[in-house]
Amino acid sequence: MGLKKRVDAVIDAALGSRVVGCVVLIEEAGQRVYARSAGYADREAGIPVAENTIFRLASVTKPIVALTTLRMIDKGLLSLDDKVADYLPYFTPRAPDGSTPDILIRHLLTHTSGITYDRPPNVSSGSDPRDLIPLQENLRRFASFPLSFKPGEKWAYGMNIDVLGGVLEMVGDGARLGEVIALHTTGPLSMRDTRFNVTDRTRISTPYADGTPEPIRMAEPQGVPNDDGSMDYYSPQRIFHPTAPQSGGSGMAGTAGDLMKLFEALRTDFLTPETQQMAYTTQTELPLDPPGRNFSFVGAVVTDAARSGWPKDGLLEWGGVWGNHWFIDPATQTNVVVYTNTMREGCNGPFRDQMRDAVFG
């Protein structure tokens, strides 16, 4: 069975019962080999998904900010070993032993800073319905919260890229994060719809959450249960508020085609060859969970396919809780972007794994 039939079969099996709508794009060496828009942008209104449908982005925002940072490093505007406190003097959270260790830019990029998603109740993570305050004020509140471990000791996913966004604002002489990203990345690459706002409200998809027998249309706010019985709350309306913190870890909206432009630029000449290699390869030996993967500056890299359950070593991947995921295979110059409007199936449910195996398995 060829690539198109395998990917079509995965999409067809998921539509309706697990995924409401999606856009799937695959490129090999810069050539489009697969493109499909399927399902509904708004199921109740009968509006189909189009290739230029705009989706909410949670952690898909992270590689956009990370690659902007690497681009700025290549331009000499900052360096991997700069201290965060040199740009954000107020951001000096304490370690568990009471010390105030130096957090470096590389710690933020690799999620080894000790910053997690644990935070005070008045701090926004970027997709929740909490206070709509400026980014720097959000980070000032966050700075009072202790680190979970000393930088470099462990790997833990968290608000690292939100803090990195605050650094980029300072490097950009106080410009808002979205302006910095537009200057260095989305503007030059003509990623016209990837912003901290919605460029065209007629094209924004309706968000849905996992449900039985079909995904549920999300309310404002919407509680989504976790495996441990706790509840996370998400705000579909947040993207429409111009005063919301421009959260580098979870705050943008955009199209699948825009993200493919970024990955194609990464494949070619967006970064220097040395920095490009760092983006594609593991930059910390600290293991992720499940094992067999480590983190680069952009996403997770499969380092042991047998242990990880992934098809092959060298794959780079990540996703976002609103319902998106992406894969890169540097060896074959294959880029895959999958945007859905269904949380969490489109991010880390069976749909992700089935799509991965259809392309690489």
Describe the secondary-structure layout.
Layout: H1 3-14, E1 21-28, E2 31-42, E3 47-48, E4 55-57, H2 61-74, H3 84-87, H4 105-110, H5 135-143, H6 160-171, H7 177-186, E5 208-209, E6 216-217, E7 222-225, E8 231-234, E9 252-254, H8 256-267, H9 273-280, E10 293-295, E11 300-302, H10 305-308, E12 316-320, E13 324-329, E14 334-340, E15 342-343, H11 345-348, H12 350-360
Parallel strand pairs: 5-15
Antiparallel strand pairs: 1-2, 1-14, 2-3, 4-9, 5-6, 7-8, 10-11, 11-12, 12-13, 13-14
Helix pairs in contact: 1-12, 2-6, 2-7
Largest sheet: spatial strand order = 3-2-1-14-13-12-11-10
Q: Low-confidence spans: pLDDT under 50, at least 5 residues?
A: none
Class by SSE composition: alpha+beta
How much beta, percentage-wise? 15-25%
Number of DSSP E strands: 15
Helix content: 25-40%
Average pLDDT across residues?
97
Radius of gyration: 19 Å
Cα end-to-end separation: 12 Å
Oligomer: single chain
H and E order: HEEEEHHHHHHEEEEEHHEEHEEEEHH
Major sheet details: 8 strands, antiparallel
What shape does the CA trace take?
Answer: globular
The DSSP helix count reads: 12
Structure report:
This protein has 361 residues and is α+β, with helices and mostly antiparallel strands. Helix content is 29%, strand content 18%. The protein has an 8-stranded antiparallel beta sheet, sandwiched between helices. Strand 7 and strand 8 form a beta hairpin. The longest helix has 14 residues. The radius of gyration is 19 Å and the shape is globular.
